[in-house]
Structure formats: structure tokens, C-alpha cells
Write a structure and sequence with these properties.
The chain is an alpha/beta fold. The chain has a single domain, classed as TIM Barrel (Alpha-Beta Barrel). 44% of the residues lie in helices and 11% in strands. The chain has 14 helices and nine strands. The strands form two sheets. Strands 1, 2, 3, 4, 5 and 6 form a six-stranded parallel beta sheet that branches. The model has no long low-confidence stretch (mean pLDDT 94). Bound molecules: zinc ion (ZN).
Length: 390
């Protein structure tokens, strides 16, 4: 009997150790593969006309959550939506790396509270530092450090942009080398851990764009997907003022309609939406109304159109181009850009090496070469050149 118990205990121990090893070694990469599928795998082919035009463009994307997965961004991963080699192949010049610090279990676009924390499990699976377990600010800083490490190890192919000087030098460099300029953003001001003083810390780590909310209401503002979906809190108003003082961009992606109204009522600088759809082609509460498009454009900001189904109600480049065309018709062609949401737990039609497919779809939608250049990145370059710190 005792022998049987020993065998049972031994087997149980092996199963537990096996499971723990499996969790720590494979869970993060398996999670990424399941959550970030690519419908059509590379290589991608486009018409000669589209390929030629795409090669002349300064392409910029306002949103990718690639830092979340702990993967080396200098490696050309077999399964990924964004890494440096793919960005280079896609002729992408500027890529916003947006940091996610907390998401709810059962995440949906209708109604979420903040009582659960998916990112905690991911942080454990990635063996992140212990300080990341109970601090969202630390999680953001850790991801920023990772981007700096990738840039240091990239042989000059990934350069972090923090101010106008960096950007001007980068634009010069792009004339001779296909480097990628990365800039940092955050999804949700809960990354401040409730303390506005942490804005300084995040600024010094290189963050230049923050959305007040992500999937749940927080102490700064209400989310489009929260429970109460309220507007800016008093602390939220102070957050907007302090963001503007530091020349950090307020990103209205995921904001509740009341938050959008409240921010636009007090904003004195350009406001952006880093990744969204438009209700004109895809009517759900993740996407912007015509009135919101007009008012955001009036601040001088840029609206980044997303590449996934809930944003554009379709799973191909043409659906993305149609949403862009609609947004440009309402907001003006100078206020629309790309906001892929690559690696943001979304299924996308192609990875970033296939961005020329959008150029091709914009040609098919009847845009001029000059307008395509603005949409594909010219508008974001103009905005950042004016809005970034000196
Ligand atoms: Zn998002």
C-alpha cells in the first residue's frame, strides 16, 4: 500500500513539475500564436504599380502591441505580425510600440471590469521581474527597457524616437538606410498605478502617447468597454493637462463617448486615435462616429485605421482601404493614417511585411499618389514632427 502511494506521489510530482516547466517555457509563445493569427502568410505580391509606389512611401503605423509577448523583435519570427525584419520588408519607417499593462479575463468590447488581470499570468509565464507582478508602472517600464535592448542589439536597424531631433535625424537616415523608428505609447492610464507623478517616470522612459483607458474604466476616465463608461475624472483632467505640458499625445482609442467629449473640450493640442474603425463602414461601439471624426481632425490630430475585423468589418486590405476612404471623406485626407493593432490579440489579413497590399487597395479606391503618401505615413510624420518634444 505504502509502495502504491509512493508511486502515485512520484507520478503526481512529475506531472506537476512537467506542467510548470511547460507553462514557463511554452505558455507565452503559444498564447501569442493563438491570439495573433495571420490569415494570409507571406510572401505577398502586389501589382508593379503598387510595389513601385510603396517603395517611395514613408510608411508609419500608430499602433502595435508587439512588446507584450516578450519575443526578440530583431528575430524574423515564424509566427508574428510585427518584428524588425518584417517592418523592413514592409518598408515601414515609423512604428508605434504600444504597451499593454492590464487586460480583463473574458475581454470584450461591450462591458468589462478591472477585477481580473490576464497580463499577470503572462508576466509569470515570461518570468518577468517580481516587481512587475503588482505594479502596472513597472510592467510598462520593463517593456520600454526591452525596446531599448532590441534597439541596442539591432545594428542600427531599430532606432527609438523620443523628440524632434531624433525624428529629424531618423528621416535623414532613411534616405540611405531602411531603418525603423520606434516610438512608445501606452494603452490605458491605469499604467500610472494611480499616481500622476508616475507620468514623469514614464516620460523619461520614452513614452510619448498614452490613452486614458483600455478595456475597463479607471481612475482617469471611462472606457468604451467599461461598466459605467463615464467621462474624464478630475484626476483625468489633470492627466490631460500634464500630458499636454510634456508634449505627450493623448490617444482616444478605447475611450468612452463621454471621455472623447471631455478630452476634446479641454484639449489645446492635437489629439490622436491610434487604432480604430469608423461607424460609417463598421458600426459598433469600438468605432468612431462621423461627428467624432470631424472634431478629432479639428484638433490637428490623426486617426489611425485598424486592420482587424471589428475595426473594418472585413478581413482584407480592401476593407481597410474602404474605412480609410470613408474617414478621409469626413475628417479630411490629412487626418487619416494607419493604426494596425498588429500583435494586439487580433486576427489580421497579413503581417506588416504585406503593408504594400494597403497601398494597392488605396490605388483601387481611387486615391492619388500624393494622398496615398499622406495616409500611409506622411500625416503621422507631420504630426510627430510638430508635436514631439524639442
Ligand atoms: Zn487597443
Amino acid at each position: 500500500m505504502r509502495r502504491a502511494i509512493e508511486i502515485f506521489a512520484g507520478t503526481a510530482a512529475i506531472v506537476v513539475v512537467g506542467f510548470v516547466l511547460f507553462f514557463f517555457i511554452f505558455a507565452a509563445s503559444i498564447t501569442e500564436r493563438v491570439l495573433n493569427p495571420v490569415i494570409n502568410k507571406p510572401p505577398y505580391s502586389v501589382s508593379e504599380r503598387a510595389a513601385k509606389l510603396h517603395e517611395t512611401l514613408f510608411v508609419a503605423d500608430m499602433h502595435a502591441d508587439s512588446l507584450l509577448w516578450g519575443r526578440d523583435l530583431n528575430a524574423d519570427a515564424a509566427v508574428s505580425q510585427v518584428d524588425v525584419p518584417k517592418l523592413v520588408r514592409g518598408n515601414v519607417a515609423l512604428q508605434a510600440f504600444t504597451v499593454v499593462t492590464k487586460t480583463p479575463r473574458g475581454l470584450n468590447i461591450e462591458r468589462n471590469d478591472d477585477s481580473t488581470d490576464n497580463i499577470l499570468l503572462l508576466a509569470l509565464a515570461q518570468r518577468q521581474p517580481l516587481e512587475n507582478l503588482n505594479s502596472l508602472t513597472m510592467r510598462a517600464l520593463w517593456q520600454a527597457r526591452r525596446l531599448h535592448e532590441y534597439a541596442d542589439a539591432s545594428g542600427g536597424r531599430l532606432i527609438i524616437i523620443e523628440n524632434k531631433r531624433d525624428l529629424a535625424a531618423f528621416v535623414e537616415r532613411r534616405k540611405t538606410q531602411k531603418a525603423v523608428g520606434g516610438w512608445l505609447g501606452i494603452e490605458g492610464a491605469h499604467a500610472l498605478d494611480g499616481k500622476l507623478e508616475n507620468l514623469d517616470t514614464l516620460y523619461h522612459a520614452g513614452f510619448r502617447m498614452i490613452s486614458p483607458t483600455h478595456f475597463f474604466d479607471n481612475d482617469i476616465a471611462g472606457s468604451a468597454h467599461g461598466i459605467e463608461k463615464y467621462g474624464l475624472t478630475d484626476k483625468g483632467r489633470e492627466f490631460v493637462r500634464q500630458m499636454e505640458t510634456r508634449r505627450m499625445l493623448v490617444d482616444l482609442a478605447h475611450a468612452s463617448p463621454r471621455t472623447i467629449d471631455d478630452v476634446l473640450a479641454i484639449a489645446t493640442r492635437p489629439v490622436v486615435v491610434s487604432h480604430t474603425g469608423v461607424r460609417g463602414t463598421c458600426d459598433n461601439n469600438r468605432n468612431l462616429s462621423d461627428d467624432q471624426l470631424r472634431r478629432i481632425a479639428a484638433t490637428g490630430g490623426v486617426i489611425g485605421i485598424g486592420f482587424w475585423d471589428t475595426a473594418v468589418c472585413g478581413e482584407d486590405a480592401l476593407s481597410i482601404a474602404k474605412a480609410i476612404k470613408y474617414a478621409a471623406g469626413i475628417a479630411g485626407v490629412k487626418h487619416v493614417g494607419l493604426g494596425s493593432d498588429f500583435d494586439g490579440s487580433v486576427k489580421v489579413p497579413f503581417d506588416t511585411s504585406g503593408d504594400a497590399l494597403i497601398t494597392e487597395a488605396l490605388i483601387a479606391e481611387g486615391f492619388s499618389d500624393a494622398d496615398i503618401a499622406l495616409i500611409m505615413g506622411g500625416n503621422i510624420l507631420r504630426l510627430l514632427s510638430e508635436a514631439m518634444p524639442e
